[in-house]
Amino acid sequence: MNSLHPARRPKCIATVCLSGTLPEKLEAAAAAGFDGVEIFENDLLNFDGSPARVRQMAAELGLAIMLYQPFRDFEAMPGELLARNLARAERKFDVMAELGVEMVLVCSNVQDIAIDDPARSADDLRQMAEAAARRGLRVGYEALAWGRHTRTWRQAWQIVRQADHPALGLILDSFHTLSLGDTLDGIHDVPADKLFFVQFADAPKLSMDVLSWSRHHRNFPGQGDLPVTDFARDLLAAGYTGPLSLEVFNDEFRSAPARLTALDGMRSLRWLESEAGGAELPAAAQFEGVDFLEFAVDAAAGRELETRLRALGFILAGHHRSKAVDLYRQGGVNVILNMEQDSAASEHFQLHGPSVCAIGLKVDDAERAMTRARELCAQEWRGPVGPTERSIPALRAPDGTLLYLIDDREADRSIYESDFVLHPGVQDDAAGWASIDHVAQALPAHRLDSFVLFYRAVFGMHAEAVQEIADPYGLVKSRAMVSPDRNVRIPLNVSESGRTATGRFITAYAGSGVHHIAFRTERLFETIEAIDRGAACLQHVPENYYDDVAARLGLDDALLTRLHDDGLLYDRDPHGDFLHAYTEPFRERFFFELVQRNGYLGYGAANAAVRMAVQAQLSRGATTSADH
Amino acid sequence: MNSLHPARRPKCIATVCLSGTLPEKLEAAAAAGFDGVEIFENDLLNFDGSPARVRQMAAELGLAIMLYQPFRDFEAMPGELLARNLARAERKFDVMAELGVEMVLVCSNVQDIAIDDPARSADDLRQMAEAAARRGLRVGYEALAWGRHTRTWRQAWQIVRQADHPALGLILDSFHTLSLGDTLDGIHDVPADKLFFVQFADAPKLSMDVLSWSRHHRNFPGQGDLPVTDFARDLLAAGYTGPLSLEVFNDEFRSAPARLTALDGMRSLRWLESEAGGAELPAAAQFEGVDFLEFAVDAAAGRELETRLRALGFILAGHHRSKAVDLYRQGGVNVILNMEQDSAASEHFQLHGPSVCAIGLKVDDAERAMTRARELCAQEWRGPVGPTERSIPALRAPDGTLLYLIDDREADRSIYESDFVLHPGVQDDAAGWASIDHVAQALPAHRLDSFVLFYRAVFGMHAEAVQEIADPYGLVKSRAMVSPDRNVRIPLNVSESGRTATGRFITAYAGSGVHHIAFRTERLFETIEAIDRGAACLQHVPENYYDDVAARLGLDDALLTRLHDDGLLYDRDPHGDFLHAYTEPFRERFFFELVQRNGYLGYGAANAAVRMAVQAQLSRGATTSADH
Description:
Two copies of one chain form a homodimer.
Chain A: E1 11-14, H1 22-31, E2 36-40, H2 41-45, H3 51-60, E3 64-71, H4 81-99, E4 103-107, H5 118-134, E5 138-142, H6 153-163, E6 168-173, H7 174-178, E7 195-200, H8 210-217, H9 228-237, E8 244-246, H10 251-255, H11 258-275, E9 287-296, H12 299-311, E10 315-320, E11 325-330, E12 333-338, H13 344-352, E13 355-363, H14 366-375, E14 379-381, E15 394-396, E16 402-406, H15 415-419, E17 420-422, E18 433-442, H16 448-459, E19 462-463, E20 467-471, E21 474-482, E22 489-494, H17 501-509, E23 513-521, H18 524-530, H19 533-536, H20 543-553, H21 557-566, E24 569-573, E25 576-582, E26 591-598, H22 605-627
Parallel strand pairs in A: 1-2, 1-8, 2-3, 3-4, 4-5, 5-6, 6-7, 7-8, 9-12, 13-16, 18-22, 23-26
Antiparallel strand pairs in A: 9-13, 10-11, 10-17, 11-12, 14-15, 15-16, 18-23, 19-21, 20-21, 21-22, 24-25, 25-26
């Protein structure tokens, strides 16, 4: 058994995880801090340079070549094919010698003609190992989940054990084991020095054949749904001391910028190693909720947004001590409008127009959370701070939004008291807003895995199940990231279509960012009375919606009439019910949602289609009038 | 039994097939010539207008509302739920009366609590049918492939038969039957007047759970892999006389322009009805090969392309009688360069730059083929014709490329003799080009189904299996459309990534079009000797490629040396082998391929990755030098 926190293991990534040419892949892996790479054979074949040149490039970048792969369909072939396969192996050993790589991955035979005879497989692999050993090389044998006869690591281990050659060992792959619903139970029976190499991949749970699932939908640990951390924990407990490597086949990774993918890979492995008890990371933050939202605006957008906020019951609560920044407040909700020139906010405004540029998150220990974030490759941010103002640790979310981590433990006053001149004695809780319920982000579809990993690893959030929502112009998928105590909720919305609400946002906004913010009250009917509903809320919920919700959920007439008259939407889950309404979008950038959740856990996905239909209508209206 | 060719059946489409708001969907269905629509309930719920308003819109567009759907989870529920469900049905009957639709679709119950008791299901459905009949309405019962207890049409029929109510009948759906591997065997036992309605959908063969497959990947008959024509034939033979309707859930359809989708739907149903023997269409053309390719160029591009063609052995064979058009020839291959101002070609050039604007296809009977094309909603094209020139029937491919149909049966001379002043006595077969082997088109990924249907329905081509090719910057999928005698081959290439060769083409070309053309010889080594290989062919095939192909296919050294020295690629399938080479891309628009196929049936997909890697390198080189 290892001690719980030994030195960190070398980190490795297979070239097939990354987009581009072989030199581009190597550069990206080195830039993300990997110690080594697996060379995926096709990347070498398509490279117009010798294996020796690849060895030199890797060495110059400080990368070890840790594995050459795959060598396919070798063992237990009929007749004279063994001789041909051994000859083929010798040619690959030539390439490996030139590359300077010591280990080759042999994956279990998938050919129909392969013979179902583990003893024969063992014998063939022993011969290959003997040939490898003569040249100082080693052979790792891996069970493919769809192998012809060898599909589990236990079967592969029986063969390796029987072959009993020092140059032959086992290669494990989390996907091949976990995709079959298998575990590493029994791995302690394998001597640690026979665990030659381990490849990690996660994947979303999909009901499809395992080959297609593997070839197109793998992703990095922390991005999918497989119990990869259990796998890693069992493996380290079994005494594995080799590199932690990533092997992912993913259609989106193939076309994504290699450097971003490599950085996600490094974040994934560091998180995985910590979750598996192989290295220590500071614990994730305990969240106490969303403390404030900050909008980047110019003077005109600021006035327009102020009108919207006042309609929702907000009042001006103070001015920043040193910057052109206003604080609006209502009950437990703080909204900051930042009009400061030459600031991070003004840069954000130039790029995206009026929009959320920062989110303040209340945490138990900001320093600990920042240390964890730094170790998980998050980008820290520091802005200018006035003399009496508080310096608040901040990092960038993957969409560039600033995330401030606010921790009042050692402060004698709140950040609002330290940084703002507050208007005393203002009554600011008439509308009854209790908190910011959720902050939804829209992002391009291919970025979802990356965002999920960020919030899961850096902040310890849970990824909820993907919801599918039918926008009139295409499908929108939504996956909420939620802090363990549920007081920070960040739904992530993606759409393959550019014509949906999400797609239109990404075009208008020129990237990914916050596209809606939900304020929560414990008594929505009273809140609606207290605010300027006509100015605040989206009208035109179709009558047909109420007819259906009444038939579907069997609502009593009094509630139905009340919902209908106030233009509210309604949903119910096993935990409780949910009342909500929306505002009109603010210049195709964002909108507000008004919610009351009585134990309900979701986000009203059942009503999203009707909301999107109304918003699409409004947006078409706006486009049409703009055209005239 | 019906006669073989009765009057055509009414055509219907479910609103869920089409993108947009309900009014947009109705307009698209009417514009494509549909007789009616199924109203999918959510489209009504999200519409801000009464059911009566929908009835009026449909009537104004000449559309009947043929079905209201779905009504879910009705039958065989425990306890007091039947009463609640009957009350729910009454509310939907109110909506149907206002809509003016006579039939509702009840799909089989999927709830875990549903009781496994066909007699109970029959009893419940009889009560609902009785309630419907009181209002002059009818109920159609459909088995969902993933229903809790009722999954096949035979089970649904036993329930309908037992209920024995005139207002209750069966609704069939080709997807629900075919996705289970089931057929309509035994459908003759169902009285024709109990076959209330039929919905058609096709789908690609995917190994995934049937619910996800159904919700996201259905497509129109002729776009997928299911035996939908057998299903339709069995159905018509059983005496079904109702509408042919389409019900497709497809993520890409949800965001595609509704009018294009509706037109594809109409093409699909007309083709299906004909294939099923329910209506007659002229037979598809018998192809005799690709007769010519026409490039739209300006003077400069024309000179550059001429240089390329001369390097490949082509010579100038003639000038057009009335237009600025040149004919280049080599063996059996004709290439036309069109520089005519104010022509279809010059329009094409304005839009796409130098590129293929027309393809001449040799057919047995051009008039018959054109009549078929017209009936299948293809767009006919007529250009200006000089006094002694031949008028050639033409239509537009889905990418706008003109397809000329050439039929020399009644002509006393070829189109080259009638339209061109030929240079007599020119020796033009030195290079040994025998024919145009294939013409590949690149298209946006979401257009593939539409293109497949066009070539399959209009030209009777087969769709080959999808090949996946790893471009360094993303996945490319290729599906070849091939005429029955294999002398016209049109590979269709798509990529979700904008960074692949296919993606870069679509950006540079501003749309879909021809991106490579393969010339075929029976003796490639000799052809290579006869042409200017240095100018014509792509150099830099990596050495690593030859090392691998030798190890993988066990090539003898003489062949290997020859391939290597000539820079040729090699592949093999069970039918024969394949030698090929590529030219450098012409301004990111297209390239030529040089092929010899000795019985081989494919397109060298195994070598596409290495070709794309070299081309990506060239393209990066071009970009990089342009940057300096």
